[in-house]
Amino acid sequence: MNGSIPSGYIPPDLTHDQGIVVLVMGAAIAVGVFVYMFRRRR
């Protein structure tokens, strides 16, 4: 997270490794939002 790439922006020349990193980050964010919503609902 050096801040060189704006959040939500995916460069067209995305390599395979970078794609995996983006997927992992997206999954982590999704899980975090899900847990937040689940905990808030209770």
Question: If you had to describe this structure to a student in words, what would you say it looks like?
Answer:
With 42 residues, this protein is mainly α. It is built from 1 helix and no strands. The chain has one helix at residues 16-41. The protein is elongated. It starts with 15 loop residues before the first helix and ends with a helix. The model has no long low-confidence stretch (mean pLDDT 77).
Helix content: 55-70%
Helix and strand element order: H
Strand percentage: under 5%
Give average pLDDT, whole number: 77
Structural class: mainly alpha
Query: What does the radius of gyration come to?
Result: 13 Å
Number of strands: 0
Sheet having the most strands: none
- Give the helix tally: 1
- As residue ranges, the low-confidence spans are none
Keywords:
42 residues, elongated, mainly alpha, single chain
Task: Draw up the topology in text.
Blueprint (H helix, E strand, L loop, with lengths): L15 H26 L1
Put the structure in a nutshell.
The protein is 62% helix and 0% strand. It is mostly helical and 42 residues long.
